[in-house]
Fold this sequence. Notes:
Blueprint: H1 2-10, E1 25-27, H2 34-44, E2 48-54, E3 59-63, E4 76-77, E5 82-86, E6 99-104, H3 116-122, E7 123-124, E8 127-136, E9 142-147, E10 152-154, E11 157-159, H4 161-168, E12 174-183, E13 189-197, H5 205-215, E14 224-227, H6 241-251
Parallel strand pairs: 1-2, 13-14
Antiparallel strand pairs: 2-3, 3-4, 5-6, 6-8, 7-8, 8-9, 10-11, 12-13
Amino acid sequence: APTGYGGMLASPDLPQKRDVALRLCSSAGEALPQDIGQRWTNHFGVEIIDGIGSTEMLHVFLSNRPGDVRYGTTGKPVPGYDIELRGEDGQPVPDGEIGDLYIKGPSAALMYWNNRDKSRDTFQGGWTKAGDKYTRDADGYCTYAGRNDDMLKVSGIYVSPFEVEATLVQHPAVLEAAVIGKQDADGLTKTKAFVVLKAGAAATEAELQAFVKEKLAPYKYPRFIEFLPELPKTATGKIQRFRLREKESGAA
């Protein structure tokens, strides 16, 4: 998972290229931030292949490929699979716009056992609704925006928590970051970042906010930042953002 690569890159014991025998690396579980992938390749001279699959599809359906890696994206559809990005009206969205990811392929499940409502919502006429939001560029590369239940609307505009997180981890003092929505004093949703700093590193809330403002549209920068010793994760390294939302709700 990306957290593993980030942790290794931050380690003072990271071996040199000459001391290891790597041919190819892979990443899954969460989208791989561009900065982590590029730093890994710069150090070891090998690519990290980032892709996405699901239990419902039983297979990877979007992926970068050896020799065709574009860090910051999940690549292109795997042969045998088709994708569509659809808006809230169910129609395909233009390139560059955020849409719900739908997949069609031969390995798709038929249904969820004893869960008719979820089956009807997920499996739709040969298409499987992934529960993820993506954008696609003019070259056909797809970029992860976030899980449907993680996406934020700030000032009426979708904000990808992953985009803000991937920007924060570019700061030399930041090891990991996770972004959720938090209501401000006026009851409006704003972005809040939970940040883990690298061992021995220091950074202030204002410094990180200014760093993000330089790289993203102004409405995307985190209005609130909380520093934590570690982020809640699953056994496979996925960040549990719902735990952070629960933490925030309990503090409100």
